[in-house]
Structure formats: C-alpha cells, structure tokens
Amino acid sequence: MNRKICVVTGSRAEYGLLYWLLSNINKAPDLELQLVVTGMHLSPEFGLTVEQIRKDGFVVAREVEMLLSSDSAVGVTKSTGLGMIGFADAFNALEPDIVVLLGDRFELLAAASAALFAVIPIAHIHGGEVTTGAFDDSIRHSITKMSHLHFTATEIYRRRVIQLGEGARRVFNVGALGIDSIHRLSLLSKSELESALGFKLGVQSLLVTFHPVTLEPGRAQHSFGTLLDALAKLDGVSLVFTKANADTEGRIINDMIDDYVLSRPQAVAYTSLGQLKYLSALKYVSGVIGNSSSGIIEAPSLKTGTINIGDRQKGRVRAKSVIDCGSNLEDISIALQTLFSEGFQKQLDSCINPHGSGNVSSRITDILREASLKDLSKKRFHDLKYSEISE
C-alpha cells in the first residue's frame, strides 16, 4: 500500500515554496499525495488561489474553510478554532500516514493541533528559525514540538530544533525549499515579465512586500505609512507592490497600497503574483523592500539586494545582500541610498546564499518515503549535555 502523504497549504507564498515537493510526491509511484487547501486559498479577497492549484494539475483532497472576514486578534483566534474543527474532519476522512506542514502561520497551528490529537505524525519544514517581531515565532516553535520529522534550512536552525528537545536523527538540514523554484522554473525574461504585469519596469525599480508585525498591534498603519513616505521621495523609481497576507491588520496595509497606487502611474499592486511572476520580478528589480522572508531566503540566490525593515525577520540567518534598517523615515531613506549605490549593486554578484543551493524537494521526498513510521509519534525529549548547554 502506498504511503499517504498529506500536505496542508493555506497561503499563496507557502504554496509556491511547496510546489516542487508536491510535484515530486504526486509523481512518485509509491506515494499518495493528499492535498488539503485552506485559509487564503479559499478567499476571493486574496485571489481564490485554490483555482491556480487546480490549474497546476493537483487534485485537492479536502478544502478546510476557516478564514473569517475579520483580521482582528479575535478574528484570527476564531479562525484558528474553526480550522481545528475542519482539520479534525479532514484527517479523519483521509487517514494520512503523515502530515506535512511548512512554516508558522495560524492555519498550520490548527492543522498541527488536529494531527497531534489524531496521533498522526507530523513533518515540519522551516523549523528552528527565529523572527522575534511576530507571534509566528511562537507558532513555529510550537509546531516543532508537535512534529516528529524536521526539515531545516540551515545547520544553525537544525541545531536549534535539537536544542528544543528533538532527537538529532529526526532533524535534517536540507536547505530552503524556495531555492528549488529558482533553479527549476524557467523564469520570465524582463520583457515577458513586463508584458505579464502590464507594467514597465524603469531603470530603477523596487518590489515592495510588507506584512503586519504581529507583536506590535495597532502600529501597521504608522509603520507602513512611514515606508510609503520614504518611497514617495524617490524620483523615477518603478514600484511593484504585493499585498499583505491575512494577518492581524493586514487589510489596513492593503487599503493603504490601493490608495497609494491610485494616483501614481509608476506604481502597481497585485493581490497575488504567483511564484513564476514573483521570482521573475525579484530577479529584475533593483531590490526588494519590506519585511518578507523572501528578501532573506530567495533574493540572495537571484543576486538581488534587500532592504529589511524592522524586527519581523529579526533572528534569521542573512546573506550580505540584506540591508537591515529601522522603521523610521531616516533609516529607510539611508537604506535606499545604500541599495541603489554602485558599490552595493556590484558586490551582489559574489553573494552566497546561506540557505543552500537547491534539490531540497527531492531530499525531503526521499526521507518521507524511507522514514520508519513505527512508534514515530512516541517522542523522547532530547536532553543536551552540560557541555552543550554551557557553550
């Protein structure tokens, strides 16, 4: 009997990272892919991207409706509760051998909780990372403690998962999945990208991707407004905005983006670019600015500079292509000057991405196929030796 691998996806960004892993599992003769779609994928407000998943050739085994129209703390909490109910039914019907989760969003916390109670082993991708500016940090570590197989993006993250008490033999440093798409997709040429976007990139251009800092409630409008003020001072720079996820106060940011681009012909906004257009844009812009993990993980492989604002990504391993700055107007303006400088742009060619060089999906597929599931759910806490603790 084929091993049933249930993969959960709740957002466009996470699906883009999972694409090649889903493809590998789907093509494997000895594995059965069970794809469960939830969250923003099922919302017209966020592009109804479940339709793109189907166009990509994947069969959706179950849809779990959980996303409320509210992005308040109460709304996100209630959505998580609805998700647990939906995933309980989905897992009961599908009876997967293992559930695969990537990242740290609240949709995945609901899925992990339901799988834990159903005694279904969990494989977690991108554990061990630190992002001190968002409650995603706590969600990520919580999912790690509920999981049984771990696939990390760097050796530092692998060690951190072990530090959390996970057995070393079940923690694998495979690299970041997003790098696979860069190597395996045929990215668009600049002219093809401009045609697909319906927008001309100037001599200088920026990809703007900004999400709420969830541990700073009530500050989304001020923080993003400061970024918009800095961008408004630029002369002749094309701006491509991608909208925020369904996080607390995400709709505030999206409304501000719509207002900003309304009267600016050099700016354009998209709810969802999809992986091909997003990575192609990342390749051809002068830099990416905001607080998205893509500027930390994927951009270095494309030799594109990043301005990372504030604390949302604080703690992640960085390449020298990343410029960290504060969220005030002066810091952002100085960072923009550095990004556009000739010296900074020249040194990008020698940039090395610490998140690996690809072939991640194949490594994960092999481990999912070969790992023994016998007693996998009975975890033992891995205690560090005194010498390890004192380092």
Percent in helix: 40-55%
H/E topology pattern? EHEHEHEHEHEHEHHEHEHEHEHEEHHHH
Based on Cα principal axes, name the global outline.
Answer: globular
CATH-defined superfamily of the largest domain: Glycogen Phosphorylase B
Tell me the span between the first and last alpha carbons: 47 Å
Number of strands: 13
CATH fold annotation of the largest domain: Rossmann fold
Model description:
The protein has helices at 12-27, 50-55, 73-94, 106-117, 136-146, 155-163, 178-184, 190-197, 220-232, 250-262, 274-284, 294-297, 329-340, 342-347, 360-370, 386-389, and strands at residues 3-9, 31-38, 60-64, 98-102, 122-125, 149-152, 171-173, 204-209, 237-242, 267-270, 287-290, 305-309, 322-325. With 391 residues, the chain is an alpha/beta fold. The strands form two sheets. A seven-stranded parallel sheet has the order 3-2-1-4-5-6-7, sandwiched between helices. Strands 10-9-8-11-12-13 form a six-stranded parallel sheet, with helices on both faces. It is globular and about 60 Å long.
Keywords for this structure?
single chain; 391 residues; alpha/beta; Rossmann fold; 2 domains; seven-stranded parallel sheet; six-stranded parallel sheet; 13 strands; 17% strand; globular
What is the topology?
Blueprint: E1 3-9, H1 12-27, E2 31-38, H2 50-55, E3 60-64, H3 73-94, E4 98-102, H4 106-117, E5 122-125, H5 136-146, E6 149-152, H6 155-163, E7 171-173, H7 178-184, H8 190-197, E8 204-209, H9 220-232, E9 237-242, H10 250-262, E10 267-270, H11 274-284, E11 287-290, H12 294-297, E12 305-309, E13 322-325, H13 329-340, H14 342-347, H15 360-370, H16 386-389
Helix pairs in contact: 1-7, 1-15, 3-4, 4-5, 8-11, 9-10, 9-13
